[in-house]
Amino acid sequence: GASRATQTAGALAAGGRSGRRRAQRAPARCGGDRTSGIGRAASSPPAAADTTGARTFISGPAETKGDESDEEDSSHERVPAKRPVSNTAAAAAAAPLLEAGAASQPLLQVAPSDLQLPPGAVSGVRGGGVIVGAATADGAGLDPSLSGMGYLKRILTSRVYEAAVETPMIVMEQLSDRVGNKVLLKREDLQPVKSFKLRGAYNRMAELTEEELARGVICSSAGNHAQGVAYSAQQLGADAVIAMPVTTPRIKVDSVKRLGGTVALVGDTYDATQAYAMQRARDEGRIFIPPFDDPAVIAGQGTTGIEILRDVGKLLGRGEVPHAVFVPVGGGGLIAGIASYIKRLAPEVRIIGVEPAGANAMAQSLQRGRLVELSKVDPFADGVAVRKVGAECFRICQELLDGVVLVGNNEISAAIKDVFTETRSILEPAGALSLAGAKAYLEYHDMEGEAVVAISSGANMNFNRLRQVSEMADVGNRREAVLGTVIPEERGAFKKFVSMLGALNITEFKYRQGASQDARVFYRVNYSGADVIEELCDRMRTENMPTYDLTEDQITEMHLSQMIGSSATVANERVFTFNFPERPGALALFLDTFSPKWNITTFHYRASGEAAGRVMVGFEVCDDTREEFFAAVDKLGFDYEETTDNLTFRMFLQASGTWDSVA
């Protein structure tokens, strides 16, 4: 029979009033200053936070990518490069569908680094701001179907189960024992397309008329939404065109084609691909199926919330609810839908979003009380690597969310390993995101004996990424540290250094005698215990062997650890990391931009299976060409970051670098 939560929801949807009340729990031990982690603002600083409760309010007024590129396949469309779509045109074409009467205020441009939080800290939620592109124009009124009760009815009457399945919820026994809290995992990776995206895509398409289905549908996606639309079209007997960036890996292209979709490869970026899809929809009369910013899509994703409340009652006891539900956030459709359901039936349950620290568009939007657009995104968790969240999604989240937790790539990799250890299933990075956030939250707030829910939102993993994830997992679980130590270049010093490591297990070690008075050692050690590494660093320093913890430096992990072993002195050297689109011709374009004007001093590329290849490059840039050089970098159009002052680079790869002043 139906659970109590479902019965209550049915009464509400029918206009009745439920007599059941849940006891309100006291706020978690995350109040005070620890609840809010307000980072450095790009433009105007956020107002002071009110941290009197578990939820933080602040008073006051999308680009997704695929994985590794493959060779061309003649069995699908490759759209010719004529009529290239500019960034401006792409942005205009990709405007939210719910734009009636939208304000003309441009989106605030920010960088991911403009909001930095300790892992597990909850971001603020600022109310009362202008929601650019939201469903309501001037506050004069909201379509009743988009109200709280309207969304509840939409969710309860959704048709997702004509295609999607009710996925199980499991207790992660080993992880629960380790963290001292009951961790429940909602297995959306077990959907027919290995992702929750099927729910929203099918619900949107199930609302189409027979005439609209006959015209066909189109979407733009490099991953899970593409498969959801193709599968839904197959179930409904509609023709589907799936526009995908040219960098999309063969495995994802083939998956869409197996489901009956016609693949059109166009554009290096998601913005360009979406602009093409929307223009083709207009030209051919097809219906564009958005990935998240649509009421029907949001309602379809919201059915996950029905199952969460029902299954928690089965696992914890009838009428019990979790302390919090952690939801991965990309464009915001899943968390908007889940919050629309759970917050109406069990308002005491915290709904907390989880984003990568390098793709934090929702956290920054909520922090400022307005939609923002990220200047770049970290492509590691490509399924949520979105530059801007949906306007309607943001409107709902601003009303209902308790905040957002940010996590690093190491923590995401550790969560992938946790799930594999207990289920033998391999999640994609975005699929393990919410579990990483739940773990960080529980640790940061020193919680014990609570129950939390995380969602394994997808398992469309590129096999080529497993090496990178495996290397990062132990770091994310606080079991491996990456260290650099300076030892005097004298007899006996190396032996003394090794003896001071004691019983720590060394997993990697790089040492080479240099021309200076000091030698530098790069190494990794396994450890257990929160203070072990800090104590080792202190012990080394007392013996005149300065030691630095390099564990959290992504540049070290991705590039520099592979290059250590030689060093050089290069005048006027500047070092950068670039995100290269994984397609033929990208390297030639890059070299044409800089050569022969600027000499390349170092170059490192490591295939990781991500949407964009990560490359570290050094240049000789004299002062008199500096302005011209940066103009060329900006014109190139690749996401980049200058890393000239990176500690590991100065310490190990510059023979006469001033690394000690940087440290």
TrEMBL record:
PROSITE patterns in the cross-refs: ACT_LIKE (PS51672)
Amino-acid biosynthesis is among the record's keywords: yes
Cofactor(s) required for function per UniProt: pyridoxal 5'-phosphate
UniProt EC number: 4.3.1.19
Pfam family, any one: PALP
Gene3D superfamilies on file: 3.40.50.1100, Biosynthetic Threonine Deaminase, Domain 3
A single MF term (Gene Ontology): threonine deaminase activity
Family matches, as NCBIfam families: ilvA_2Cterm (TIGR01124), PRK09224.1 (NF006674)
UniProt protein name: Threonine dehydratase
